[in-house]
Design goal:
The protein has 349 residues and is α/β, with parallel strands linked by helices. The protein is 57% helix and 12% strand. The strands form two sheets. Strands 2-3-4-1-5-6-8 form a seven-stranded mixed beta sheet, with helices on both faces. The chain has a two-stranded antiparallel ribbon with strand order 7-9. Helix 3 (92-104) packs across helix 10 (242-261) and helix 12 (287-331) packs antiparallel against helix 13 (336-347). The chain starts with a strand and ends with a helix. The structure holds guanosine-5'-diphosphate and magnesium ion. Magnesium ion (MG) binds at residues 15-16.
């Protein structure tokens, strides 16, 4: 039996490094059909029944970029048997966003926590067992660049795919989002199954506003109407749009999870500062006032404070020049007309 495993993760999470460790030189380069996105595949060294496909680096399974669409199409159309989701453990919160979407796919998956060397050398620690219990899939700490944890990862992957062990959990939402997703799942259930699409994942997509799969499932106008209505209800109850509702729900869950499972004695100050800054600069209501304030401040500094300092210092220099030149011309007893021309004409002018 041969199994196809998709390797997915954020950019710079160490995907290519891990891919190389897993496959050695057994690699094959190709393209995804119709796009110029490179597709690397290779056979796992110790387990030749596992074929790994290194997919493009992505941050979510939403259709925001070609890479994200290519990845999702590949996973759904090629019917991959399993997923290795690699996460940069030094940046766990951002990386887990993709993980929550992966779990909804209902495909056997393993989370590879990469860059554990950096987490440890920084003095932090991650409770892997807690993560595993909360996420409902095997979590394996690895250091891809030093070939650590790779054998364990391969064993876990072989186990989940050969026994078809699907993620135990996929429901991370509460309240209005929960209600909307479940109601939509109920509406589409039969047709999604008939089209061999993961019900829960597609329900979240529809609530999020991603309509890509409507055609494939041949939903009726009445069904589409119901979905629209359920989503609008959720938006008005929560007072935010559908995309924010889902993103906020995922981040809330992740924040709680990482507060439980990650202990930080060293904080990556720069990262948290820039992400905090980002949060304000891209805030829904505050972004524009902050932008206007920044522009006014720059304008004031240039033409106000700094400008007046510049013109004051310039005037001071000229006055000094007039005085020095006048004294000099007096001392050499130059013609009064020339002195007047230089001092009152040229310099003062
Ligand atoms: N410290 C450390 N660095 C790693 C590890 N894995 C990968 N890297 C480095 O992280 C960077 C990005 O890795 P790469 O495999 O190109 O990431 P990709 O964008 O996900 O394919 C490279 O400089 C790697 O050498 C790891 O476990 N620990
Ligand atoms: Mg890469």
């Amino acid at each position: 039996m041969k199994y196809t495993i998709a390797l997915i993760g954020n950019q710079n999470s160490g995907k290519t490094t891990l891919f190389n460790q897993l496959t050695g030189s057994n690699q094959h380069v190709g393209n995804f059909p119709g796009v110029t996105v490179e597709k690397m595949s290779g056979i796992v060294r110790r387990k030749s029944e596992l074929e790994i496909v290194d997919l493009p680096g992505i941050y979510s399974l939403s259709p925001y970029s070609t890479e994200e669409m290519v990845t999702l199409d590949f996973i759904l159309k090629e019917k991959v048997d399993g997923i290795i989701n690699i996460a940069d453990a030094t940046n766990l919160e951002r990386n887990l966003y993709l993980t929550l979407q992966v779990l909804e796919l209902g495909i056997p998956a393993v989370l590879a926590l990469n860059m554990m060397d950096e987490v440890i050398s920084c003095g932090n620690s991650i409770d892997v067992r807690k993560l595993e219990a909360e996420l409902g899939i095997p979590v394996v700490p690895v250091v891809a660049s030093r070939n650590r944890g790779i054998d364990d990862l391969v064993d876990q992957v072989a186990l989940v795919v050969s026994s078809n062990i699907k993620p135990e959990k996929y429901d991370f939402c509460t309240g209005e989002v929960h209600r909307a997703i479940h109601a939509v799942a109920h509406v589409i259930e039969d047709k999604a199954r008939a089209s061999d699409l993961p019900v829960r994942f597609i329900a979240s997509k529809l609530v999020e506003g991603d309509d890509r799969f409507i055609k494939e499932m041949s939903l009726t106008p009445a069904e589409i109407d119901i979905i629209g209505h359920l989503t609008e209800e959720m938006e008005s109850e929560l007072g935010k749009d559908r995309e924010s509702a889902l993103a906020d729900m995922r981040y809330e869950y992740i924040e709680k999870l990482s507060a439980d499972a990650v202990s930080r004695s060293c904080s990556v100050v720069q990262q948290s500062f820039s992400s905090r800054l980002d949060k304000w600069l891209t805030h829904k209501y505050l972004a524009i006032p902050i932008f206007v304030f920044a522009m006014v401040a720059i304008f004031y500094l240039t033409f106000g404070l700094f400008g007046s300092w510049l013109s004051d210092s310039f005037a001071g220099i000229i006055e000094y020049l007039i005085m020095v030149t006048g004294d000099f011309l007096d001392s050499v007893q130059i013609n009064i007309a020339i002195r007047s021309l230089v001092v009152e004409g040229i310099l003062s002018g």
